[in-house]
Design goal:
199 residues; single chain; Jelly Rolls; alpha+beta
Length: 199
Amino acid sequence: MRLLRTLTLVIGLSASLASAGTVFTFDDLAPGTYTTFTETIGTLSATFISPTDPGSFTVVPASLNSFQSPMSGNVLEDPGPLGAGFLPLYVIFNQVVNSVSVDFATASSSTFLLGAFDNGNFAGLSSATGTVPNGGIYPQGSISLSGAFNILVFADATSPYFAIDNLSVTTPEPASLALIGAGLLGLGGFERLRRLRRR
């Protein structure tokens, strides 16, 4: 019974340690920074790019467009210096991520799209519609997706412009999983030794 409780505890702990969260807020980038650029947090790098770069999307203060919480500090929006609308934004990661969520704003009430790909193979699609928050001007919302992918595509179905903030992703943590596996093997060996000593 004690081993069962210990294994339950270890499995619960492994679920909490199995992934690590990273949030790209654009707050460490200078306003006016425009795509294409790469941000790195720890071992995770994300390259923000659009087909018509350079200059499709730009980093601006959230207050510039009266964005409301949770969009704060800096956001990434179009139009950038290029001035074009109806453009997709790609985010390419240097490793596989297994979940993503992001806050968004659109220029008009429309459907915001999040597509995911794993090395070019379709991995999932999510859509959401924002609402205008108190004190705000533009519809805002949040969108998320889970799976295994390394490329994200953000687009708006009918609005020419959108902004994103707080791009949160989780990545598998191989070191944590290996440590938990070693612990489980150790527990199994300890239990076997204990049973042999009882005989």
